[in-house]
Request: fold
Amino acid sequence: MLLSKKFYERDPAIVAMDLLGCVFVKKEKEILKGRIVETEAYYGLSDPASRARKGKIGEIMWEDAGRAFIYMVHGNWLFNITTMPKGNPSGVLIRAVEPLNGVSIMKKRRKVDDIRALTSGPGKFTQAFGIDKSYNGIRIYTKSSPIFITEGEKKFDIVKSKRIGVKKDLPIPLRFYIKGNRFVSKA
Reply:
């Protein structure tokens, strides 16, 4: 079942945890699918690591929930989803997925044969799925969207930790991942 806009209109940490196990889908010649195995939550202006503090680059975070928010860091596109109602900037970064469908396309794009190396990090994931700035702002809660997320398996333990690569962080753990999943990025 497709995740609704209402799903995303909640606290980003809750959305980040609830996204684990869900299936990320991208429609192209072949449907690409990956089980979400790692996420990070970001808040608004009170969060020193939030893109909402970065001016124009983070303006999409101020829009309604359920939009793709894509920006580049160190030469890699990062895929985020806005959360909370309009005017409350926050979001969730998809850090890693477990490839389910379209693996041959992912291998070609990433130029690797090791399936574990395909999507085990936020830049690897977007490269494997062919995601770039052109998808910024799309609403991912409609079936007509080229990218959407569906419900998935929820039988696993969640590990919480500090976010990766964040110099100034909030005092609570905002990185979430499926315990023991081999596609989780290395901290």
User: Anything to note?
Assistant: The chain has a mean pLDDT of 91. The longest strand covers residues 32-42.
